[in-house]
Amino acid sequence: MYTPDTKIMKLAIEAAKKSRPESDNRIHPKVGVVIVKNGNILETGCRGELCAGEHAEYTVLERKLKDRDLTGSILYTTLEPCTTRKHPKIPCAKWIVKRRIHTVVIGILDPNPEIRGKGILFLRDNDVLVEHFPAKLQLKVEETNKDFIEQFRKKPSMDDESLMESSSNYEKKPIYAASIDDLSLESIKFYLDCIDLKIEVPSEELWQFFVKKSFLIIYGEKRMLIPTSAGLLLFGKDPETFLVQTKIKADYFRGVESVETIDHLDIKGTLPKVIDETTKFFFRNMKSAMRIEGFSRVEIDEYPTEALREAIRNAMIHRDYVIEGATVMIKMFRDRVIVESPGLLPRPLTLERIRSLNYKPISRNPIIARAMFDMGFIEERGGGIKRMHDLMLNHGLKKPDFNYDSGYFTVTFYGPGEKILDIHPKEANVVYAIEPAKLTLLNDRQKGILRYLLEHGRIASEECTKYFNITRDTANRDFKKLIKEGLIEKKGSGRATYYVLKER
């Protein structure tokens, strides 16, 4: 059984850095390869090491180890092996199969969308086990090949709206580099529980159900089960391994400009996990204050959390996943929160219709949207924009602003700034409240003692006599009455006695 060896992965990355440039003007990848057999390193190599343009796999397999039996060995490579070369050259994936390599451990997938995943699919179709570098080492490979990767990334552009328009077919796109082993059984069980479907996990019945739901496809003569984009986004163990655009970049800035970052987080995982983790990011960076309203202690949040959560749901469920070079971004400032989602609104939606709240809902990714609805992450399909609008106004804040910015659809929530106590949410979070029925049993002075406790937290007999201009006996009778009604409790003893509200 394959056991990951990060030391060898790091050795392959170091080899990749030694790749030699070529004489043409094109940007080529830096690739490093290490071959291991029976726990021993047989050879290392890099692209162009012995001849300009020569692929690293070929250099190691056919130049350095031409006469060595490599049956059952493990090949570590920083880049997915190629499947096409100009005749008479043979693709690296075919060399690997020909030399009977048992396992190939890959750093990153080929960034070219026309090639991406085909090398892995070819290897798996020829009974070669395929594994991947862990996420941290994948990032190191990406950094080494930053310029090579960048040339394949689509840049969002406000000037070309047709480029930003996406077909919903992308969510049905098979990700050939992945397999059912890349799906989380725990996530699948959660989904099945939500739709109240009793199917054994895993089972042939489950996979056939997932094919019907377009979470999987059946491919080739061997009838291999291949996850789709939707399948990985909803149930993948590590969706970002195959879909680099799936994470959220969240930043909390000190002031009103994006200069000094106080908190930063890259949020990865399935769509349900990403939404939950982003909500936690909001909670830990959002201000709150306490205010006394009547005979209640009310906690005031800076923003209605559900409005922010709705914006994240919309951004992740309805974004344009075709734009692989862009991620959803969260920017929290002292006076506002901005959620940026790659892609413009799907036609026929327009900013004007969204702003007027006069629109008919349309989903760019209906398969994903349906599954998220089934799992309870969408309360009402198509009502998210109006819900954000209403939640902000009911919180005592300005309505959210919907706009475009460099090919992103943006939602801006304007907060109260330093005047958080000035806002009056329609549905505030009551931390402590005294029931009206109890208040009817009390006189005005006893009610005054309760209000004092709400504001100050505690009161002693001496404080009570001075504040309300009463005798100690009167104060003690009031305390006994309030204790009898279960509203306060006594703390300490003797001269150190004081009273507090009784928590319920």
Mind explaining what this structure looks like?
By secondary structure, the chain is of the alpha+beta class. It has 4 domains: 6-150, Cytidine Deaminase, domain 2 (3-Layer(aba) Sandwich); 161-245, no CATH class; 246-422, Heat Shock Protein 90 (2-Layer Sandwich), CATH 3.30.565.60; 434-501, Arc Repressor Mutant, subunit A. It is 34% helix and 20% strand. It has helices spanning 6-16, 56-64, 92-98, 118-125, 135-144, 146-150, 161-164, 185-194, 204-212, 229-235, 271-285, 305-318, 351-356, 366-374, 384-394, 436-439, 444-456, 461-468, 472-484; strands at residues 32-37, 40-46, 74-79, 103-108, 129-132, 216-219, 224-227, 248-253, 261-267, 288-293, 296-301, 328-332, 336-342, 401-405, 408-414, 429-433, 488-491, 498-501. It has a 6-stranded mixed beta sheet. A 5-stranded mixed beta sheet has the order 2-1-3-4-5, sandwiched between helices. A 3-stranded antiparallel beta sheet has the order 10-11-16, covered by helices on one side. Helix 18 (461-468) crosses helix 19. The longest helix has 15 residues, at 271-285. The protein is elongated. The relative contact order is 0.08. The model is unreliable at 157-167 (pLDDT under 50).
